[in-house]
Amino acid sequence: MNEPQNPIAVVADQVPLRTKPSNYPEPYASRMAGREKRPLGDLFGLSNFGVNLTTLLPGASSALRHAHSQQDEFVYILCGHPVLVTDAGETPLAPGMCAGFKAGTGNAHQLINRTFENVQYLEIGDRSAGDSAIYPDDDLQAVLVEGRWQFAHKDGSPY
Question: Which of 9, 25, 38, 159 is in Cβ range 3.0-4.6 Å of 15 for a Cys bridge?
Fold first, then answer.
């Protein structure tokens, strides 16, 4: 039986958008309006880490402000001027800048596009088993179970 062939190379901004705009439950999923992800790593069959080409339209956010227990994350700004929001405050970013988020530190982060131009960046993260995420600004917590995020309120009750 032949395995499906992964491409050798692609034009990143021509890769189809992720079909589901957000994994978050409502009321949080709708807050991700204006975020577009192109799953580059999946296209090549990568399983140890993920790579997304992400675009934030004006006013959009990368995610709810969050921190992972097991997964490291890295972003590299290609165009635009987002603001990085962390526990330390706000840091303006520009093309060519990058930021990394070590797992287990509890330092929650997100990017926000407060400009009138699109922001585009690469996001790279590993796919460590047993990951969980905290969301300090929202009544939300998440656990990665068999490759899928399961969300609950902070008191443990499910969405």
Answer: 38
